[in-house]
Amino acid sequence: xxxxxxxxxxxxxxxxxxxxxxxxxxxxxxxxxxxxxxxxxxxxxxxxxxxxxxxxxxxxxxxxxxxxxxxxxxxxxxxxxxxxxxxxxxxxxxxxxxxxxxxxxxxxxxxxxx
Amino acid sequence: xxxxxxxxxxxxxxxxxxxxxxxxxxxxxxxxxxxxxxxxxxxxxxxxxxxxxxxxxxxxxxxxxxxxxxxxxxxxxxxxxxxxxxxxxxxxxxxxxxxxxxxxxxxxxxxxxxx
Lengths: 114, 115
Description:
Chain A is an all-beta fold. Chain A has strands at about 5, 10-15, 20-25, 30-40, 45-50, 55-60, 60-65, 70-75, 85-95, 105, 110-114.
């Protein structure tokens, strides 16, 4: 069983839709949770960062963490064609990434159609 | 603001050839990383470094070597290239400290094909 599971998609939605991207994990030691966005032929860039259960909102983006279910989500409201990208979840334990321990999901490819 | 710069962007190698992927960052980050990204497989850590002169293996180090002589540079060396090394390679950096070292800054990648 992989430590982090993410549906690779691809996911195609119409402009304005609400998008839900999800990851499940098996290691209960994970404490910090991130979402990276990767445009085609570019490197990933950090989109959202959370370190506790609950919701964190940033504009049209909401990151949700449920540690009891070992489940994290990224919601995108009023999706735009510019949101078309691959979204990777990432997580790490309490010691952080000092030992290169950040674990990435496989990434979900999202396409938002005008 | 250059950030993390990788060269080359594209390269085709023949089986058995060697090459060095260059990576430099201008953010004075102590931590640097090399990842490879294969379709549907996410990012796999090859090597990482927590400072000049210090390197360590990641999840998939076989067939690669690194060095870290300065804070800014972290080249990745492929010896005796094999088709299994066909991938997109990303260099990344981060600052030390809880809450900071997980925030990686990535370069734009090197697409490598070994034929």
